């Protein structure tokens, strides 16, 4: 494995250390993640972007965002359809054909999904220092 001695600005060093600390807080064992592994991953991603620019393989953030949004919303819709079908089956097996009961159960599931999304967001993203 190669070795580089590099200097970075204080701001970049802080951001790298924040990423490292976030990984530790999310349950990674110190033997699984290190400052070196974090820097290696950031450099690898940077080289991918550098090579894409060099090869005129232009990256369109707008196209990427549109595609991700399309996939995520499609997955979300599929989850909702599955939950609806499962609720209907469960309630019909219990002898109920009440649409309000289906809506209530779906509302519970959607609230749980929203809470899980919020928890995941707070675990995986560092909040800006000026956001209070």
Automatic annotation (TrEMBL):
Keyword Ligase belongs to the record: no
Single GO MF annotation: DNA binding
Coiled coil spans: none
GO cellular component terms attached to this protein's record: cytoplasm
CDD domains in the record: Tra_M (cd14804)
Gene3D superfamilies tied to this protein: TraM protein, DNA-binding
Domain of life, per lineage: Bacteria
A Pfam family of this chain: Tra_M
Primary location: cytoplasm
Protein's UniProt keywords contain rRNA-binding: no
Subcellular location: Cytoplasm
Record-stated family: Belongs to the relaxosome TraM family.
Protein name: Relaxosome protein TraM
Organism: Pantoea allii
């Amino acid at each position: 494995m190669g070795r580089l001695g590099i200097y970075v600005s204080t701001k970049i060093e802080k951001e790298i250390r924040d990423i490292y600390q976030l990984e530790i807080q999310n349950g990674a064992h110190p033997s699984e993640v290190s400052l070196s592994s974090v820097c290696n991953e950031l450099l690898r991603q940077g080289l991918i972007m550098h090579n894409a620019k060099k090869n005129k393989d232009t990256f369109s953030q707008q196209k990427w965002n549109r595609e991700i949004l399309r996939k995520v919303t499609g997955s979300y819709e599929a989850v909702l359809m599955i939950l609806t079908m499962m609720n209907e089956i469960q309630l019909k097996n219990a002898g109920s054909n009440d649409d309000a009961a289906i809506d209530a159960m779906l509302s519970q599931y959607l609230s749980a999904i929203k809470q899980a999304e919020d928890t995941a967001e707070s675990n995986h993203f560092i909040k800006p220092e000026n956001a209070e």
